[in-house]
C-alpha cells in the first residue's frame, strides 16, 4: 500500500509529514536510508521500505481505516493482553489514538515516539494506571520498542505482542528458521508439539514457539531476500498465517491475502491475565522487535 500519495495535513520536519487516510492520521517518514508510515490510531507501523527494497511490512489491501476498527496488517500493538484473554481481543492499545511525544532525525535515520496513558476509555476495559510509549526507529533496520510503566499504587499483570505482518513474494516458496524446537499449536487445542529446524508454510498455521532464538529468519525465495526478526523482552515467537478459508471469511482481507504475508511476532505470552508478567509500581518493561532484510 502506497502511503506517500496521501494528502499532507502538516509537516513536522524535513523527514516527517502527517498525512490523512480516511479518518486516520499517518506519520510518513522519508529518509535517504528508508521510508516508513505509522498510524497514530493504534501506534501502528504500516510500512518500512529500506532504499531499493520492496516493503518489509504487509498491509491488507482491504484494511479498514475508520479510526475504530483495528487495521489488518502492519505491526499491530497487542497490549495489555495478547489474544482473547479479555475484551477487546488483543487489548485496547491498537484501537486508541496515540500522540506524538518526540521526534528527531540525523544522517543515520529518524526516531518517532508515540505515547498513551490511562484515560476514561482505558479504565472501562482495564482498571489500572499506566504510561506507554512506542518508539519507532527507521534506519538501515526498523526497530519498534514498546515501553510500559506502572504508574499505579499496586502491581498489575499484562501480556502483549508486536504482531508483525511480513511481506513475502510467495508463501509457498518461503521458510522460517531459528524459531525453536517446541511450540503450542492453537489449531490442536493448545497442544505442545515438537517441530523441525525449518518451517515451510503450506496450510494454516497458528503457533506459539516458546523457545525461540533471539533472531528468527524468514527466507523469501521469490523476492530473493531473508528477513531477520530480532526480538527482546519476549518469551515466545508467534507464527501465524490464516490460509485460504480464513482469508475468504475476513472482510478486511482479500481471498488470496494469505499468499503474500506471514506473521512472526515478538510476544510476551500468557495463558490468562492473572498469569501475565507482574509489573510493580514505578517499574518499566520494554518489548522490542527489530526487522531488516539481506
Identify the CATH class: Mainly Beta
Count of helical regions:
2
Radius of gyration: 18 Å
Low-confidence stretches: none
Helix content: under 10%
Q: What gap, in angstroms, lies between the N and C termini?
A: 22 Å
In percent, how much strand structure appears in the residues?
over 45%
Mean pLDDT over the full residue set: 97
Helix-strand makeup class: mainly beta
Overall, the morphology is globular
Question: SSE order, as H and E?
Answer: EEEEEEEEHEEEEEEEEEEEEEHEEE
Main β-sheet, in a few words? Answer: 9 strands, antiparallel
Count of β-strands = 24
How many domains make up the coordinates? 1
Task: Please sum up the structure shown.
The protein is globular. It is mainly beta and 294 residues long.
What does this entry look like structurally?
It is a single chain. The chain is mainly beta and 294 residues long. The longest helix has 7 residues, at 243-249. The chain has one domain: Distorted Sandwich (Beta-galactosidase, Chain A, domain 5), CATH 2.70.98. It has helices spanning 120-125, 243-249, and strands at residues 8-11, 16-21, 24-30, 34-39, 44-50, 77-78, 99-106, 109-117, 130-138, 142-150, 156-158, 160-162, 165-167, 174-177, 182-185, 191-194, 198-200, 205-209, 215-220, 225-232, 236-241, 261-268, 277-279, 284-293.
Amino acid at each position: 500500500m502506497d502511503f506517500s500519495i496521501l494528502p499532507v495535513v502538516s509537516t513536522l520536519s524535513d523527514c516527517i509529514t502527517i498525512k490523512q487516510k480516511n479518518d486516520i492520521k499517518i506519520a510518513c517518514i522519508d529518509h535517504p536510508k528508508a521510508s516508513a508510515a505509522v498510524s497514530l490510531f493504534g501506534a501502528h507501523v504500516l510500512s518500512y521500505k529500506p532504499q531499493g527494497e520492496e516493503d518489509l511490512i504487509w498491509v491488507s489491501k482491504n484494511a479498514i481505516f475508520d479510526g475504530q476498527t483495528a487495521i489488518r496488517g502492519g505491526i499491530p500493538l497487542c497490549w495489555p493482553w495478547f489474544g482473547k484473554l479479555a475484551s477487546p481481543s488483543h487489548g485496547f492499545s491498537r484501537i486508541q489514538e496515540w500522540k506524538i511525544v518526540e521526534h528527531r532525525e540525523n544522517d543515520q535515520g529518524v526516531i518517532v515516539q508515540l505515547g498513551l496513558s490511562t484515560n476514561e476509555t482505558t479504565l472501562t476495559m482495564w482498571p489500572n494506571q499506566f504510561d506507554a510509549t512506542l518508539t519507532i526507529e527507521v534506519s538501515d533496520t526498523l526497530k519498534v520498542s514498546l515501553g510500559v510503566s506502572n504508574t499505579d499504587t499496586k502491581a498489575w499483570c499484562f501480556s502483549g505482542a508486536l504482531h508483525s505482518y511480513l511481506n513475502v513474494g510467495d508463501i509457498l516458496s518461503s521458510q522460517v528458521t531459528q524459531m525453536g524446537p517446541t511450540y503450542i499449536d492453537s489449531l490442536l487445542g493448545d497442544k505442545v508439539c515438537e517441530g523441525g529446524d525449518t518451517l515451510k508454510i503450506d496450510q494454516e498455521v497458528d503457533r506459539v514457539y516458546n523457545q525461540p532464538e533471539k533472531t528468527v529468519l524468514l527466507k523469501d525465495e521469490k523476492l530473493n531476500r531473508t528477513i531477520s526478526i530480532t526480538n527482546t523482552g519476549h518469551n515466545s515467537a508467534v507464527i501465524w498465517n490464516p490460509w485460504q478459508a480464513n482469508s475468504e471469511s475476513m472482510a478486511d482481507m482479500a481471498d488470496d491475502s494469505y499468499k503474500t504475508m506471514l506473521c512472526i511476532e515478538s510476544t510476551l505470552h500468557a495463558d490468562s491475565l492473572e498469569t501475565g508478567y507482574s509489573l510493580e509500581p514505578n517499574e518499566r518493561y520494554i518489548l522490542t522487535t527489530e526487522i531488516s532484510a539481506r
